[in-house]
Amino acid sequence: MQSQLTRLLFLCFILLGWPFSSSAVRAQEAKEKPSGEAPVAASLVYRVEYVVREIEKGKPSNTRSYVLMARAGRGSSPGDRASFRVGSRVPILMASTPKPEGASTQVQYEDVGMNIDCWVKEVDQGLSMHTNLEMKSVAGSEVSSTPSTPVIRRFHIEDDTLVIPGKPGIVGSIDDVTADRRYEVEVTATKVK
Predict the structure, then answer these.
(1) Mind listing the pLDDT tens digit for each residue in 112-132?
(2) Which pLDDT belongs to residue 20?
(3) N vs C: which end of the chain shows fewer Cβ within 10 Å?
(4) Per-residue three-class SS string for 24-41
């Protein structure tokens, strides 16, 4: 009877001690892992800020800022595409044909605003940023009683830029061919902690 009681106590001790020993192993593994080490997936996420400056006649006239969150790639992986779309749809009168019951009008819609696509890739020198940025706007027109087709201004830049994390880098600078205006695009990518 005493040997059965001893075995039963031994079995209870083992069963009760098992959760403590496994938590001790997890605690030891946590001690061995360097502190402040983030999971790999979190270390690849960057806050990407694009700043578009409009300079008219040599003086800044407008500045816009756009922020995206992008997952970076490493090695041969280009990373995930991060996209940003903001704007309006503008109706454009395409044709007007007379009919016996009245005129028929064909309308097409054009997207105007800002479109940004970016890919971030970690490289030895910093970050390789692939940017595809398009800005469309309706050019100012005179108000008249008859509808007219609006003039759409388009600014498009596609570029690969090498940047240092946390520091701004120039994506590009373009002169407007229709006015004394210049657009400058800057990007800053900061690792999310």
Answers:
(1) 999 999 999 999 999 999 999
(2) 46
(3) N
(4) HHHHHHHHHCCCCCCCHH
For residue 127 the two structure tokens come to 């970050």
Interatomic CA distance for residues 137 and 88, integer angstroms: 9
Residues 162, 148 share a domain = yes
Q: Where are the beta strands (DSSP E) in 72-168?
A: 73-74, 82-97, 104-123, 126-138, 152-163
Q: State pLDDT tens for residues 146-177.
A: 456 778 888 999 999 999 999 999 999 999 88
Left, alpha or beta for 57 (phi > 0: left; psi -120 to 50: alpha)? left
Asked whether residue 61 falls in the same domain as residue 145, the answer is: yes
Distance CA 51, CA 114 (A): 12
| pLDDT of amino acid 1 | 56
Distance CA 10, CA 18 (A): 12
71 and 10 co-located in one domain: no
Which residues in the chain show pLDDT less than 50?
Answer: 11-13, 15, 18-31, 33, 35-42, 142-146
Residues 24 and 48 in one domain: no
Domain region containing 162? 40-191
